[in-house]
Design goal:
The complex is a heterodimer. By secondary structure, chain A is of the alpha+beta class. Chain A is 50% helix and 18% strand. The longest helix of chain A is centred in the first third of the chain and has 46 residues. Helix content of chain B is 37%, strand content 18%. In chain B, helix 2 runs parallel beside helix 3. Classes of the chains: A alpha+beta, B alpha/beta.
Chain lengths: 236, 129
């Protein structure tokens, strides 16, 4: 057994290096397109006359600049958090977080192309999580499930000793849980890393993440309250 | 003499819009395509003077498009300028391109390359930009 351990380990390390190179190549490619249009639109705005800047062309270029910068921002922030979680560089809190509050916060921040969002979670339902990370995950799930005007429903379901936060909406376009690699399809809204980030957040919070038929399922521990688990019957 | 026709091929709608805006102000005629398959249709219909070609696209990528283009006698000699975010200039050689611009490239670099390919020569004008 031992003599097979090292080669297998090296093989896994080699595969991991290859995946990482592919992932970083994808991220670089994905950032350069909106970075290009951000730079070009800003430069064009600086070059055109004040009169034209106030007209239709100026409006078009301004909108393109804002859209491009927003896309770069999403990609960069998601990538940084992915890297920090991979490196164990995030101090993860384990608080009792009201799911309804976190969902409502995500609802407030939803992108404009997201359809109607229904939060079907009682205010008393708690998850053991880091509030900031949970909200980042919910932001990503609402944006992904609700894209192109799709309706979204956020609910909770018992999952053994844990609790499943279920976000139902539009299914992902491609196998989206794994890290994209160079050559993977581009995502025009800057959300290419959304689901890989949720996968990392789930792991950091001691949970799991899966997708099936338009249901994005984030399973997280229930909080300990006064040394005892909450009554599972209290959860819908 | 009509203005040169530039076909811009890229799957990113903002990239298409921005490049067409830039070229339009320099009096180029512009056509656009979102992938290699659409580009083949445009090439057959309009025979552009130069093609600005992204490489990584859905449906049909830039390399596949270029190989298909070279097999069409009527348009096989249309020059290609690769515009790519993949950071690998060697890929331009694989499609026998006249040049390679790595995104994000400078606006003036784009205009200079297109002018040179279209034999306009000289420094690109900034008029109208």
């Amino acid at each position: 057994m031992a003599d097979h351990g090292e080669p297998k380990g090296e093989g896994r390390a080699g595969d991991g290096d290859e995946r990482r190179r592919g992932f970083l190549g994808f991220v670089a490619h994905e950032v350069r397109n909106p970075l290009s249009t951000a730079l070009w639109s800003a430069e064009l705005l600086a070059r055109i006359s004040a009169e034209e800047r106030g007209g239709a062309r100026g409006e078009k270029l301004s909108a393109m600049c804002l859209r491009s910068i927003s896309r770069v921002r999403l990609l960069v922030e998601d990538h940084f958090l992915c890297e920090r979680l991979d490196a164990g560089g995030v101090a993860v809190r384990r608080d009792a977080v009201p799911v309804r509050d976190a969902a409502d916060a995500a609802l407030e921040r939803r992108p404009p192309d997201v359809g109607q969002v229904t939060v079907d979670v009682a205010p008393t339902v708690l998850l053991q999580a880091d509030r900031v990370l949970l909200e980042r995950a919910l932001d990503a799930l609402v944006a992904t499930a609700g894209r192109d005007g799709s309706a979204v429903r956020i609910a909770c379901e018992p999952a053994g000793d844990a609790l499943a936060l279920v976000v139902a909406g539009k299914p992902p376009d491609a196998p989206a849980l794994e890290d994209p690699v160079k050559g993977s399809p581009s995502e025009p809204r800057g959300r290419a890393l959304a689901l890989p980030l949720v996968r990392r957040i789930a792991a950091a919070l001691g949970g799991a993440f899966s997708v099936a038929e338009g249901r994005y399922v984030l399973t997280l521990p229930r909080p300990d309250v006064g040394g005892a688990r909450q009554d599972p019957a209290a959860y819908p | 003499m009509t203005d040169p026709l530039v076909l811009v091929v890229d799957d990113d709608p903002d990239i298409l819009e921005a490049i067409c805006d830039i070229l339009g102000t320099e009096s180029y005629r512009v056509a656009r395509a979102r992938n290699g398959l659409e580009a083949l249709d445009r090439v057959d219909a309009e025979r552009p003077d130069v093609i600005l070609l992204d490489l990584m696209m859905p449906v049909m990528d830039g390399v596949t498009f270029a190989h298909a283009l070279r097999k069409r006698p009527a348009v096989a000699d249309v020059p290609i300028l690769v515009i790519s975010a993949d950071g690998n200039p060697q890929r331009a050689a694989s499609v026998n391109a006249r040049g390679y611009l790595a995104k994000p490239f400078d606006i003036d670099a784009l205009l200079a390359h297109v002018a040179a390919i279209c034999r306009r020569g000289g420094e690109p004008s900034r008029a109208g930009l």
